[in-house]
Amino acid sequence: MKLLTHNFLSSHVKGVGPRGFPLRLQASEVRIMPVEFNPDFVARMIPKLSLGEVPTEPIQGYEQNEDFLRTMHHILLEVEVMEGTLQCPESGRVFPITRGIPNMLLSDEQTEA
Amino acid sequence: MATGGRRPEHGGPPELFYDKTEARKYLRNSRMIDIQTKMAERALELLCLPDDKPCYLLDIGCGTGLSGDYLTDEGHFWVGIDISPAMLDAALDREAQGDLLLGDMGQGIPFKPGSFDGCISISAVQWLCNANKKSDVPAKRLYCFFTSLYSVLVRGARAVLQLYPENSEQLELITTQAIKAGFTGGVVVDYPNSAKAKKFYLCLFSGPSTFLPKGLNEVKDEEVARQSTFMNKRVPYRTARSGVVRNSGAMRKSREWVLEKKERRRRQGKEVRPDTQYTGRKRKPYF
């Protein structure tokens, strides 16, 4: 699981709603997988990220700053969490990550449907 | 994919049907790979993404990552969800470039609002229509799926879901829940006259209503629209098969259509030639 995806993942446990974000990540195994750098994509994704307690306005002209984009590219797309857990901040439900794949299956009681 | 006329959804849940053996077919069977790739290509086409812009896409029922590979080839980044561990294992073996999640689409899509620029699904959504556990209510699962899908899409983004509806009731069940969730759109049918080639694409828009793309058609001399927008009326499967949605179910320019039109004009009190064996017969191109 790439960190980009983790930034968008949210808990869908019943009754949790927007309080199910962000999922607390605990990584026990991580690997670096090179990915072709695409500055357009990274620049477009940056405003959509939830970066916690940081100033809301990105630095002017970040789209042209290649070093910055390359760093973000590396963090978001090249770092893969292979083993670990994701935890819903509201319900405490834990989603395990195995071989890079988070298991998001819910039990019947936890499903909205 | 249905084998020997029997639908796989009737035999049990997808996580059991898509076991290692089935997953291997997606890795080895070139015909299967070809069909899946072509459908992914068509779905991406129907998604109408802006040219040359790499997007963040969702692949529902990504399976072994065949459709995802096509998205990668087109320069996009994607996240795939599938309920079968065996299929996802095969995707890992194939080194699929997208992020994979083990999940049940009927439980909702676990992402924050406005995450994805678009969504495709190849041959997966019909699985929601069959209840595999006593607690499953297909309509609720479909509604949960569509409302969460609507939420995770960027406003104005589309979802193109290729599926194999068993019958018109199923298609209607699906489209009803999609509309309830806030989507507009319709069903695009490619090659409606071919039993083998015919494909259904449910095209959903999360923003204001847009023009629905035309379905593909082998026949060149008939410019017949192959699209249907959501209506309150039921569309009999028989009619959906012939590809044209008309009140009476007759194909435009067919003999049936001509006879109906003449009858209509008679009812309007206009002078109409009597119907004979020559009425609506095929004419030579130079007629």
From TrEMBL, chain A:
GO MF annotation list: methyltransferase activity; protein heterodimerization activity
In Gene Ontology terms, what is a biological process of this protein? tRNA methylation
Name where it mostly resides. cytoplasm
CDD domains assigned: Trm112-like
Instruction: Name the keywords, alphabetized.
Output: Cytoplasm, Methyltransferase, Nucleus, Transferase
Mind telling me which GO cellular component terms the entry cites? nucleoplasm; perinuclear region of cytoplasm
Q: Domain of life of the organism in this record? A: Eukaryota
Compartment list: Cytoplasm, Perinuclear region; Nucleus, Nucleoplasm
Query: So what family is this one in?
Result: Belongs to the TRM112 family.
Q: What is this protein called?
A: Multifunctional methyltransferase subunit TRM112-like protein
Species? Phyllostomus discolor (pale spear-nosed bat)
From TrEMBL, chain B:
What Gene Ontology terms describe what this protein does at the molecular function level?
rRNA (guanine) methyltransferase activity
Annotated Methyltransferase type domain ranges read: 58-130
- Keywords, alphabetical: Cytoplasm, Methyltransferase, Nucleus, S-adenosyl-L-methionine, Transferase
Q: Name one GO cellular component term.
A: nucleolus
User: Which residues are in the 18S rRNA (guanine(1575)-N(7))-methyltransferase Bud23 C-terminal domain?
Assistant: 204-285
What this protein catalyses is:
a guanosine in 18S rRNA + S-adenosyl-L-methionine = an N(7)-methylguanosine in 18S rRNA + S-adenosyl-L-homocysteine
Q: Which GO terms describe its biological process?
A: rRNA (guanine-N7)-methylation
Broad class of where this protein is predominantly found? cytoplasm
The record's comment on protein family reads:
Belongs to the class I-like SAM-binding methyltransferase superfamily. BUD23/WBSCR22 family.
Identification of the protein by name = 18S rRNA (guanine-N(7))-methyltransferase
State the organism named in the record: Phyllostomus discolor
What are the leading ranks of the lineage?
Eukaryota, Metazoa, Chordata, Craniata, Vertebrata
